[in-house]
């Protein structure tokens, strides 16, 4: 369908503030009387705290207060209330806050940290789910049974299992009886970090009027507001949360992360705002980590390639507090089918407490980890069946009428998996491979298909306030956080299309302040374009209806006889009978002073059309649409060094409708590079004592300029019935298929199967040496 | 121990008291409130803190503040003239190189140091300069596009001034 303002590359309105250095990020905020906090982290990843002596620290220059967790009686969390703002009796991971210094400057605060003396009694440390699940394991949370949790969760008190999720579809495991071929494999997607360029930070101010004001680098201001109000026993309306510009999120600035800790610290100096900004080391060691997911997978198929049964066990090392991990585990479990239909599924997900920082969202949220397994398994199965891997996949893709693991029926409007796969196959595999190897390199190509499920909750709505101004321009106020994804441009283009006015006449305000911004659950799950877009369309329709209502009185006609074109409301049968919107925006005033109508303003929101909690089989409805895509890598492996070069990477997604070609390409470019980082470089490493060995950028390597591959990016547009103008989300999807595509390409290049990432040059060299030895043997 | 230093920053002369532990970024952000220069890591890896000092791109997070004595410093705040953006800013804004924008000021300053001294910098020189900057959003392609447009605009400006 042809749109006037969609499918065009308008420049993002925040670009100018960002190139002039005027965009305000958390650390750029300075408030009168502001104090600074520094936080002490423990020496051990799991230990009882015997004593804390703060007396020396209190005497240091500039120190206002030294804070510990003593006396903290509340826990917080939206899924399992297992979190505390500061350690009380024991520490459970190496980044946990033990004490904090509040001082006049950050430097004074950090200088005094060394003077705090803490005595610990160390306990056994578990950095992996399966260690923590062993029968004799010491409990990380002794009082798990006392924690409030959502009724849909299933914690196992007396063990380190924070949640057990089990899904059965069809005959479950018995379904393997129908299989003629069975393959099994175990795959590991290790801990990672979102590692956004801007570290986490917060400012909290307990005011004398008993309100609490917060600034945070977060994408969930309303959750912060509700949680802090709950913890401190004040009405939700008395907590005000501001969100400045955010220097990248990628997941770990969702959910409540550092805010409760800073609130606890600030509560000791009422009347003064307290600021804390993570160092890079703290950003990696004390905020949310990613992944930590081991997937054990068994697939049963007929000899002709028809998939029959899937058994998956997800072992998720969820970290010391599992509130933010449980939903990642569940997503990883039911999405482990990838984009395929299995008649029988037996899928189990364990969220396990470990002595590692809590795991939370990472771009892809439980999709990259299990689908890394699924897409490697597809290549392995094709080999075992002696079948073309594209043919095997095509036989089993979710398509109109098929039913996914959750029991949800797929519709044509969910998009065209086959079309994405065909296009990627054509782009990368359309011609024969030029060479397998030369003096320096081995060459390989690999493919992966992917599925992204929606992410929501029963009340996960997004709101929109819209007002038309006296000149016909429109101000759109959204509660969605701009983390770099280009939300403001999307709002502008969708509103322009819906209101039939040029984008230049639309300004999106999303400098979030919970006092003034419309409610939004969280800006997560690649849902803003779709759900926020729908809210904009609804608000625009209401606003236009309001204009028509006023105009009907002015023109003395009926509303349904009127049309709106962005400039005028006019009589459909005779457009010359009209009234300009500029005379309607504030209501209408007749020549003799009679006032008619209302201000042209509207309020709308968009919830998920259908959402249900899991039933006794772990099945249910996730609320909105699914998205499909396909990706492929062309790589070179250097014989001498084992280094992998990704020369070309292709991605095709069915996004329903492209809003802004420049921005959507940018989203995919960046997402693919994140996936490449996971496949080849990134792993947050722990020693046996639970200490993080690489908490800096020079140790935790994220892809650099010279490592970026050339990319081909295309889109299929099967319109979505819910998203604005047919658009679906794309934020997370580009990451999902990258590691399996690269690992499938590695097999194509050197005939070696890898089951875990990152595949470093050392691992390649070892594999090549082992291969050579085998040849000689 | 405090020390008084004087320097020129964004065309204005300036004197400040520093202590010996201070880095250039501390003076810029915390003393002068020029918050456009960003702090992204603790050890000169990410490039968000890059400023131009005596014509060279410098990581302000690991350069001692004492080095500012007598120096001519340019930060992101000194790039535009009123409402008129510097060509590098314009190019970076329009190429899609800006997503979250946290790495942007450092990249703009890096390109300024390179292109103002070497408008004909080769693609390798551009790529060596940009390889010093981490970006987690863009996949770098739009940054390369922006750098190439910037180079063209800088060259055109030179031609126009001859």
Jot down its keywords.
heterodimer; A: 777 residues; alpha+beta; Aldehyde Oxidoreductase, domain 3; Aldehyde Oxidoreductase, domain 4; 3 domains; seven-stranded mixed beta sheet; five-stranded mixed beta sheet; 17 helices; 28 strands; 24% helix; 25% strand; globular; B: 162 residues; Ubiquitin-like (UB roll); DNA polymerase, domain 1; 2 domains; 5 helices
Give an account of the 3D structure:
The complex is a heterodimer of chains A (about 775) and B (about 160). Chain A folds into 3 domains: about 20-125 and about 195-250 and about 255-285, Aldehyde oxidase/xanthine dehydrogenase, a/b hammerhead (Aldehyde Oxidoreductase, domain 3), CATH 3.90.1170.50; about 290-395 and about 405-455 and about 610-775, Aldehyde oxidase/xanthine dehydrogenase, molybdopterin binding domain (Aldehyde Oxidoreductase, domain 4), CATH 3.30.365; about 460-605, Aldehyde oxidase/xanthine dehydrogenase, molybdopterin binding domain (Aldehyde Oxidoreductase, domain 4), CATH 3.30.365. In chain A, strands 3-5-1-12-9-10-11 form a 7-stranded mixed β-sheet. In chain A, strands 7-15-14-13-8 form a 5-stranded mixed β-sheet. The longest helix of chain A has 27 residues, at about 530-555. Chain A is α+β, with helices and mostly antiparallel strands. Chain B is of the alpha+beta class. Chain B folds into 2 domains: about 1-80, Beta-grasp domain (Ubiquitin-like (UB roll), Roll); about 85-160, DNA polymerase, domain 1 (Orthogonal Bundle), CATH 1.10.150.120. Chain B is built from 5 helices and 5 strands; from the N terminus they run ββαβββαααα. Chain B has a 5-stranded mixed β-sheet with strand order 2-1-5-3-4, with helices on both faces. In chain B, α2 (about 85-95) packs antiparallel against α5 (about 140-160) and α3 runs antiparallel to α4. Chain B is globular, with a radius of gyration of 16 Å.
């Amino acid at each position: 369908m042809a749109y006037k303002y969609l499918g065009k590359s308008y420049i993002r309105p925040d670009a100018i503030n960002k190139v002039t250095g005027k965009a305000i990020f958390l650390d750029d905020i300075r408030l009168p009387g502001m104090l600074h906090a520094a936080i002490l982290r423990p020496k051990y990843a799991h230990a009882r705290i015997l004593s804390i002596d703060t007396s020396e620290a209190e005497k240091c220059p500039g120190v206002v207060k030294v804070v510990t967790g003593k006396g903290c009686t509340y826990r917080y969390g939206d899924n399992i209330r297992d979190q505390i703002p500061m350690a009380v009796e024991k520490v459970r991971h190496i980044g946990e806050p033990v004490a904090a210094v509040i001082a006049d400057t950050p430097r004074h605060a950090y200088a005094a940290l060394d003077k705090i003396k803490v005595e610990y009694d160390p306990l056994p440390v578990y950095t992996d789910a399966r260690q923590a699940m062993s029968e004799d394991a010491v409990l990380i949370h002794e009082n798990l049974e006392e924690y409030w949790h959502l009724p849909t969760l299933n914690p196992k008190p007396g063990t380190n299992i924070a949640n057990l999720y089990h899904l059965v579809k069809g005959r479950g495991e018995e379904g393997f009886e129908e299989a003629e071929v069975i393959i099994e494999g175990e795959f590991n997607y290790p801990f990672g970090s979102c590692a956004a360029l801007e570290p986490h930070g917060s400012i909290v101010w307990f005011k004398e009027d008993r309100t609490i004001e917060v600034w945070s680098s977060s994408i969930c201001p309303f959750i912060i507001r509700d949680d802090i109000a709950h913890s401190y026993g004040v009405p939700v309306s008395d907590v005000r949360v501001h969100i400045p510009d955010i220097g990248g999120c990628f997941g770990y600035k969702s959910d409540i992360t550092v805010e409760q800790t800073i609130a606890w610290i600030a509560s000791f100096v009422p009347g003064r705002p307290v600021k804390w900004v993570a160092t890079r080391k703290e950003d990696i060691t004390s905020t949310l980590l990613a992944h930590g997911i081991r997937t054990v997978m068994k697939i049963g198929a007929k000899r002709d390639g028809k998939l029959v049964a899937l058994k998956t066990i997800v072992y998720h090392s969820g970290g010391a507090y599992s509130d933010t991990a449980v939903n990642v585990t569940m997503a990883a479990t039911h999405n482990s089918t990838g984009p395929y239909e299995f008649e029988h599924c037996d899928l189990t997900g364990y969220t396990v407490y470990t002595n590692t920082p809590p795991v939370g969202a990472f771009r892809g949220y439980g999709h990259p980890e299990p689908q890394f397994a699924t897409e490697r398994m597809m290549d392995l199965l094709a080999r075992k069946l002696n079948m073309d891997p594209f043919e095997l996949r095509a036989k089993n893709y979710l398509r109109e009428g098929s039913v996914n693991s959750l029991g949800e029926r797929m519709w044509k409007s969910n998009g065209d998996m086959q079309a994405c796969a065909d296009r990627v196959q054509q782009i990368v595999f359309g011609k024969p491979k030029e060479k397998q190897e030369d003096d320096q390199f081995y060459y390989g190509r690999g493919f992966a298909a992917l599925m992204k499920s929606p992410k929501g909750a029963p009340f996960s709505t997004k709101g929109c306030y819209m007002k038309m101004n006296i000149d016909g321009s429109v101000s759109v106020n959204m509660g969605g956080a701009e983390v770099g994804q280009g939300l403001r441009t999307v709002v502008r283009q969708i509103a322009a299309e819906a209101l039939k006015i040029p984008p230049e006449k639309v300004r999106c305000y999303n400098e979030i302040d919970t006092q003034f911004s419309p409610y939004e659950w969280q800006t997560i799950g690649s849902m803003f374009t779709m759900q926020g877009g729908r809210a904009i369309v609804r608000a625009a329709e209401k606003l236009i209806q309001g204009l028509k209502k006023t105009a009907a009185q002015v023109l003395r006609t009926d509303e349904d006889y009127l049309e709106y074109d962005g400039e005028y409301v006019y009589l459909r049968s005779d457009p010359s009978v009209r009234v300009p919107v500029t005379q309607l925006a504030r209501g209408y005033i007749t020549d003799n002073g009679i006032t008619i109508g209302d201000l042209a303003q509207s309020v709308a929101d968009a919830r998920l059309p259908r959402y249900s909690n899991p039933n006794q089989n772990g099945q249910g409805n996730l609320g909105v649409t699914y998205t499909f895509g396909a990706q492929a890598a062309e790589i070179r492996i250097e014989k001498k060094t084992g280094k992998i070069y990704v020369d070309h990477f292709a991605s095709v997604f069915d996004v329903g409708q492209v809003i802004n070609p420049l921005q959507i390409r940018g989203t995919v470019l960046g997402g693919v590079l994140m996936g490449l980082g996971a496949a080849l470089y990134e792993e947050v490493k722990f020693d046996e004592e639970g200490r993080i060995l690489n908490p800096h950028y020079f140790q935790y390597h994220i892809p650099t300029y010279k490592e970026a591959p050339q990319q081909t990016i295309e889109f299929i547009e099967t319109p979505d019935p819910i998203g604005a103008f047919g658009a679906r989300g794309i934020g997370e999807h580009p990451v999902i298929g990258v590691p399996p595509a690269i690992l499938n390409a590695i097999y194509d290049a050197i005939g070696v199967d890898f089951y875990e990432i990152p595949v470093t040059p050392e691992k390649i060299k070892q594999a090549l040496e082992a291969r050579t030895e085998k040849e000689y043997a | 121990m405090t020390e008084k230093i004087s320097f020129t920053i964004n065309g204005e002369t300036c004197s400040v008291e520093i202590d010996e532990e201070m880095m250039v970024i501390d003076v810029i952000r915390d003393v002068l409130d020029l918050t456009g220069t960003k702090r992204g890591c603790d050890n000169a890896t990410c490039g968000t803190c890059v400023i131009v000092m005596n014509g060279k791109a410098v990581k302000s997070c690991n350069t001692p503040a004492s080095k500012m004595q007598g120096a001519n410093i340019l930060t992101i705040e000194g790039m535009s003239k009123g409402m008129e953006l510097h060509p590098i800013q314009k190019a970076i804004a329009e190429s899609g190189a800006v997503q979250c924008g946290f790495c942007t000021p450092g990249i703009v300053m890096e390109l300024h140091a390179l292109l103002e001294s070497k408008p004909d910098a080769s693609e390798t020189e551009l790529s060596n300069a940009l390889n010093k900057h981490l970006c987690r959003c863009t996949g770098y392609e739009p940054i390369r596009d922006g750098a190439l447009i910037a180079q063209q605009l800088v060259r055109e400006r030179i031609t126009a001034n001859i």
